[in-house]
Amino acid sequence: MKLSELINLRQNKKRLDSIRNNRRNIIPFVGAGISAGCGLYTWPKLLDILSSEYLTQKKREEFAKTEDYFKYAEAIVSASGNQDAVMRRIGEIFEDVDIHIWMNKVMSCP
Length: 110
Prior knowledge:
By secondary structure, the protein is mainly alpha-helical. It is built from 7 helices and 2 strands. The protein has helices spanning 3-8, 12-21, 34-37, 43-54, 57-66, 69-80, 83-95; strands at 102-103, 107-108.
C-alpha cells in the first residue's frame, strides 16, 4: 500500500487533518514501554491521574478492571464536559514530568 493510499484509508485523512490543525494539543505516546522508560506516564497511568479529577472512585475502579482505555478516556472527557480543558490538563501534567533521555548514537531512553 502506498503512503497516499494509507493517508486516505477510512478515517485516516480526517485524523491527520485534525492533527495538522491541533499540533499544539498533541502529546505523543510511544509504545512498548518506551514512554515509561523516559519518565513519561503510560496511557493507563495518565487516565488514572485525569480520572481522579473528573470521575468518582467507583467509576475509576470499574474502568481499571476492564482495561478499556478508549472508553475510559471518553468517560473522562464526557464527565468534564469540555474536551479542550482535558487536553490542556494533559499538557499541564506532562509539563511537570522530568523526562530522562540518554544520548548515544541514537536518541533513546534507558
